[in-house]
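Friendly challenge for the regulars: who can give me the structure tokens for this chain first? No prize, just bragging rights.
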Amino acid sequence: MHVIRPVGLSIASTTAVDAHAQWAPGATYPLGAKVSRLGSVYISSINGNAGLPPENEVQELEGARWIYVSATNTQALIDGSPSVHTSGASPLVVEIDVDGPFDSVALFQLDCASCLIESVDGSGVVTSSETITNGAEPVADWLAWLNTIFYRNTRRHIVHVSGFATHKVRLTIEGPAPSIGEVVIGRAKRIGTTLMERSTRVDRRTFTKIATNDFGVTTVQKRAIARDATYQVHAKREGFEHIERLLDDLDGIRVVTFAVEDDWPQLVNIGFITDYSLPAELPDDFFFSVTTQGVS
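First reply, four minutes later:
Bragging rights claimed.
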């Protein structure tokens, strides 16, 4: 098992376009109007909505005039929610500033034919890169089609592109309708060897609301899905105090966990490390479990 502790990210440039206009201090907004403000989308809950910057609204307040909806299209890939996507015309190009050294890039809900991930230094030189390819390899004739290579199509990826705080990470996403839900950039730390057996598993959680009224009519409100991952890990006592300290330091921090480098994409998860169990007396070699509660 490995864990990626993220560094801070900000969008340096993007070809994506926001769908909603920026909130204007002198404007008056009707019920249902949507505006962008500081990377977020808000919707007006009243008519004649004027004067209050949306980010100053107390969301928990009954009768709030501005209701938070989501991150804007340009900011969605770094908002912490994989279910909200950044999309645009192909190629969708995004440059991301990082505030610390990194050796891993995790991508979630990636929809593309290909995605080039590059680490670019302050002089504009590409220092490391990796390409993700989905779908079938292009062919020129029917004979080549018989030997077509099909790449594994998965929406969760870990790539090992490295750099420093002075670098940018550039994504070039191509396809019929390129989009991405979340990017996490940071340094990967090995916790132990993941055991691929029944105790290592993924549990799916849905936030879809299904209700049946007194007349037997069922209504469905489709919402996001989250995944919880539990890893059964083989570790050694020597040096484990550093691992235990790391896991404690990550409490309450959104991280990426994965089982094995370059394999088992279904066990790549983004969320919070909530629980881990250790034997009371640590032998030289021991087993313990770690659970990551996924975010939607």
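The first strand starts at residue 2 and ends at 6. The first helix runs from residue 142 to 146. Your move, everyone else.
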